[in-house]
Structure formats: C-alpha cells, structure tokens
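INTERNAL AUDIT FORM
Audit reference: QA-55
Scope: verify that the stored structure record matches its stored sequence.
Auditor: D.O.
Record contents follow.
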Amino acid sequence: MLLGMLLFITVSQSMANNIMNENTEHSNDLITKAELARRLKVTPRTITAWTQRLRLPHYKAGRAVRFDWQSVKNHLHLHYGKGASL
C-alpha cells in the first residue's frame, strides 16, 4: 500500500505538467478510459484503479464509463497537484 502511494506521488508530480500542457480545445467532451490514459500517460488499468481508489469523477451507463477531461484535471490538481498534502 505504501509503495503504491509513493509510486502515485512520483507519477502525479510528473503528470501535473502533462495536465497543464494538454490542449483543452475539446474540454467539454466526454472521453473514454483509453483516451484518459493516453492523456495522462498511464495504462487504462491504472485509470480503473484510480477511478476506484482516488474517486476520479466519471459517468457510467451500463458498462460504458466516460470521463469529463476538465473535471478529472481539476480533481487531480486539487487533490494531488504540486504542494498538495497526501
């Protein structure tokens, strides 16, 4: 568990730069898990884990899961961004 949190802290710090540099032209679109993983430069399996453990904001209809990019960015920045305490 501790190793997982340490890994997340390291990943989230480098991820903060990726989030801030991402083009937000389509920020109102809902995106898939695969697209979110691509934007955050992690695997889709990591997105699944983060959705469960970190409570990433998402929408679910049946088996389909979609993410609002702006909401995810805000959530990660607020809770895990630079200077956040874990």
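Auditor finding: record pair retrieved intact. The radius of gyration is 12 Å.
Action required: none
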